[in-house]
């Protein structure tokens, strides 16, 4: 019995020994396999990532796995040495990975040629080939209207087949704790390319002083191109860059917005600095329309800017764009106010000797008519500084004040004439021009029929005053006052019973001589005067004829 138990114990011990040996052998096999994998990984890593990037990335993953394995199996005598070797190798592998990331990104990061950008524009916004101003659409305001619903062809900055490789490289760098390095490489490479793309397009970084020194014609052209460039930058370049960023750092949320913000910061600054320089430059009436054009494009692009530059990292860029929009609105509103004041205080000494429409009148009316092309923009601008008043009534109020300022100025200018008849002719011509222009434009809807009728009466008043003052002396010559007498001989109109009161032939002859002399003098003087509107001129001629001809006929009939 004892011998049986001994045999049982011996059998159990042998079995346990075999199991221990099996476990040890299996553990050894696992360790040996790990060594084999390490050698394979090392060989791939030493070759570098350029030949076979996929195998290189697999080797890095294997190294990471081995480091974790030996860290968890510290009982193995050589585990520390193996871990150190693998860690050093992994560090070298990541360094090579960085180099590969930089080299691959640089290879496919080239400035975009302007022609390629123009190909992505809708037809309505493409520059005319061969024109001297080929970079600038013909009319910024029209361009704004057509661009709102236009379709832009997406711009491809990096080939789609390359992006997954760059994404994998970036992901491994981040996993190795090299997030900052990947950001720096991406930022330094892409930011330069973006800025070079804008420079090739024609974007300049101009200061307030640069802007101030420019001739207006040159500046106006640059503003037109800036509006075009803003649209291209936001709708094509920055949109494409955001897509690259999102795809390359997909799954690495901490990098997406930060990278995009840092890559685009310089380019955005280059664009916005010009807008800021214009908004802060000296105000003048002719700048109002380009300020409105600039304000329009910033409003048009607002939602896209907010979407592209989302997130905390892009906050400064969003605020810069919004700040420019508000500054443009403020400057435009102040320029509008300046214009009203300038009209009232215009001290131009240039008198129109013939009493025709003054250049100031045509300038102001054309200015106001042009403003109506910007009605929706002006209403939006008034809402920026909301004071509780309806934007329609605000626009009407401002327009009325400009018209009133013009009328006040014209009344001042009319006092330069020594002849009061010419004073009234001048005011008649100019106010008639205002009324006619309003009736034929959208201003009529804003100012209303009451304004039109009121000013038509003013025109008629000046016409009547002209007629009364200019022709009073001549009509006096045709009156019978001072010609009739109770005497007989040598009289006219008294011998046939037609008129009991006679008039001296000498007096009549003298009166006709005075009439002819005054008429000739008036004719010579007024032949230098002008009534440019055909209908008004004919109306005035008939009004004078209705008074003068009956008086003349009556005089001749009585004394002739």
TrEMBL record:
Keywords: Exocytosis, Protein transport, Transport. The keyword Protein transport applies. GO terms for biological process: exocytosis; protein transport. The lineage of its organism: Eukaryota, Viridiplantae, Streptophyta, Embryophyta, Tracheophyta. InterPro entries: Cullin_repeat-like_dom_sf, Exo70, Exo70_C. Residues 225-560 form the Exocyst complex subunit Exo70 C-terminal domain. Residues 121-142 are annotated as: Disordered. Signal peptide: none annotated. The keyword Transport applies. Belongs to the EXO70 family. Component of the exocyst complex. This is Exocyst subunit Exo70 family protein. GO terms for cellular component: exocyst. Residues 125-141 have a biased composition (Polar residues).
């Amino acid at each position: 019995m004892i011998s049986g138990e001994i045999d049982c114990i011996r059998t159990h011990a042998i079995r346990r020994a075999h199991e221990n040996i099996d476990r040890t052998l299996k553990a050894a096999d696992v360790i040996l396999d790990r060594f084999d994998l390490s050698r394979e990984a090392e060989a791939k890593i030493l070759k570098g990532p350029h030949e076979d990037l996929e195998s290189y990335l697999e080797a890095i993953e294997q190294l990471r796995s081995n480091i974790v394995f030996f860290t968890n199996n510290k009982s193995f005598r050589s585990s520390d040495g193996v871990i150190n070797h693998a860690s050093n190798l992994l560090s070298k592998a990541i360094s090579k990975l960085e180099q590969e990331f930089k080299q691959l990104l640089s290879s496919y990061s080239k400035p975009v040629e302007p022609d390629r950008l123009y190909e992505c524009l809708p037809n309505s916004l493409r520059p005319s080939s061969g024109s001297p101003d080929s970079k600038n659409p013909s009319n910024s305001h029209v361009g704004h209207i057509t661009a709102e619903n236009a379709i832009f062809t997406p711009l491809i900055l990096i080939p789609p087949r390359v992006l997954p490789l760059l994404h994998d490289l970036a992901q491994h760098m981040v996993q190795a704790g090299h997030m900052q390095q990947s950001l720096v490489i991406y930022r330094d490479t892409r930011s330069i390319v973006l800025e070079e793309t804008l420079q090739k397009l024609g974007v300049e970084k101009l200061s307030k002083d640069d802007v101030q020194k420019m001739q207006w014609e040159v500046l106006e052209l640059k503003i037109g191109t800036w509006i075009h460039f803003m649209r291209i930058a936001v709708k094509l370049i920055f949109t494409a860059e955001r897509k690259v960023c999102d795809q390359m750092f997909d799954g690495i949320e901490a990098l997406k917005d930060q990278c995009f913000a840092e890559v685009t910061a310089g380019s955005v600054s280059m664009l916005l600095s010009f807008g800021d320089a214009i908004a802060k430059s000296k105000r003048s009436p002719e700048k109002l329309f380009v300020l409105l054009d600039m304000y329009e494009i910033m409003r048009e692009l607002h939602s896209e800017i907010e979407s592209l530059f989302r997130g905390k990292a892009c906050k400064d860029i969003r605020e810069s764009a919004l700040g420019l929009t508000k500054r443009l609105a403020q400057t435009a509103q102040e320029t509008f106010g300046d214009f009203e004041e300038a009209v009232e205080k215009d001290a131009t000494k240039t008198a129109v000797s013939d009493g025709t429409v003054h250049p100031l009148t045509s300038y102001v009316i054309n200015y106001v008519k042009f403003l109506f092309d910007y009605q929706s923009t002006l209403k939006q601008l008034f809402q920026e500084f909301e004071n509780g008043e309806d934007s329609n009534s605000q626009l009407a109020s401002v327009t009325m004040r400009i018209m009133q300022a013009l009328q006040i100025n014209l009344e001042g200018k009319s006092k330069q004439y020594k002849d009061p008849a010419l004073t009234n002719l001048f005011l008649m011509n100019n106010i008639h021009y205002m009324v006619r222009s309003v009736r034929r434009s959208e201003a009529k809807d804003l100012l209303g029929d009451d304004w039109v009728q009121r000013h038509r009466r003013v025109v008629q008043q000046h016409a009547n005053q002209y007629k009364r003052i200019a022709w009073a002396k001549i009509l006096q010559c045709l009156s019978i006052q001072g010609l009739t007498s109770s005497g007989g001989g040598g009289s006219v109109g008294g011998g046939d019973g037609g008129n009991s009161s006679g008039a001296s032939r000498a007096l009549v002859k003298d009166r006709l001589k005075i009439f002819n002399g005054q008429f000739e003098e008036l004719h010579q003087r007024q032949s230098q005067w002008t009534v440019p509107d055909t209908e008004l001129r004919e109306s005035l001629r008939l009004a004078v004829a209705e008074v003068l001809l009956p008086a003349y006929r009556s005089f001749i009939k009585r004394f002739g």
